[in-house]
Amino acid sequence: MASNLNTRDVFEIWPKGIAPGSEHSPAIFKITERSQVAYWPDRILTGITRPNLTAFVPDHPNGTAIIVAPGGAYARIVLDKEAAEMARWLNPLGVTVFLMQYRLPAEGHENGKDAPLADAQRAVRFIRQRAKEWNLDPNKIGMMGSSAAGHMAAMLGAKFDKPVYPVMDATDKLSARPDFLILLYPVISMDARIANQDSRINLLGKDPAPELVDEYSADKQVTANSPPAFIVVTEDDQAVPAVNGLSYCNALKKVGVSCELHSFKVGGHGFGIRDARQLPVSGWPMLATQWMKRLGVIHSQ
User: What does the angle CA 251 – CA 53 – CA 5 come to, to the nearest 5 degrees?
Assistant: First the structure.
């Protein structure tokens, strides 16, 4: 049965467009090109007050959906290498992809430190509410986050039921729990010894209280209800130490949740798919595909 969902459909996830708590944010939507090479774009996005999802629909959907959230140290959203390239990998597997624009915590939102989590919760609920209409399986909604968005996704896996925004409509009565997570070089801990400092400052400020550090360290918040995760890290990552991903994986296993972690010696940070070329870490999409097959969310072609 055909779906009425189309590639390039854009959906604002909040009923009024502007997210609750962002009505008075001074943030101004802006896209900035950083690349000096015309055919190798490297755009960033700032000033988000109207979070949205952009659909990329496969030719042969299998009912699985993945929300893809690019990183950017909670200061920006990287638009190219951690977004559409993921859709080009996942669509041929039958996965419907929703590229996410989420709020950045230091852009003047009320309760900014919970703004990304609120957007992530709402995004899962938004898709779950429309799953039947879009011929998606409401029990096969995953989230993929890179770098700081990996922190957002990991916190969603730990705190999907934390009340971080007022109930807006019937959508908010649904579970915000993702069914699985894919985390690339994720920020996990807010511990100053291993945290990505920019992400930590943008989320919690320059000198957060110890209890706040623990509350927003995703590895200290997981429960037995957290979803299974697939994690990729590199040993030479100078921006987000690999111990972040390892800590989250160990925390999941400690509470009985399955986790698969792949650590590569070389790859640095922010490689996505295109910057992983010609390196061993370029094999991560194949490994993630095999993991999703074992999980039962995609099937062998």
Answer: 115
DSSP string, 74-109: TT-EE-IIIIIHHHHHHGGGT-EEEEEE---TTSS-
**CA–CA separation, 142 and 139 (whole Å):** 9
Query: Which superfamily is assigned to 10-217+231-245+261-295 in CATH?
Result: Alpha/Beta hydrolase fold, catalytic domain (3.40.50.1820)
pLDDT tens profile 146-191:
999 999 999 999 999 999 999 999 999 999 999 999 999 999 999 9
Give the pTM.
Answer: 0.97
Q: Three-state DSSP class for 111?
A: coil
Q: What is the pLDDT of residues 216-256, one digit of tens each?
A: 999 999 999 999 999 999 999 999 999 999 999 999 999 99
Domain residue ranges in the chain: 10-217+231-245+261-295
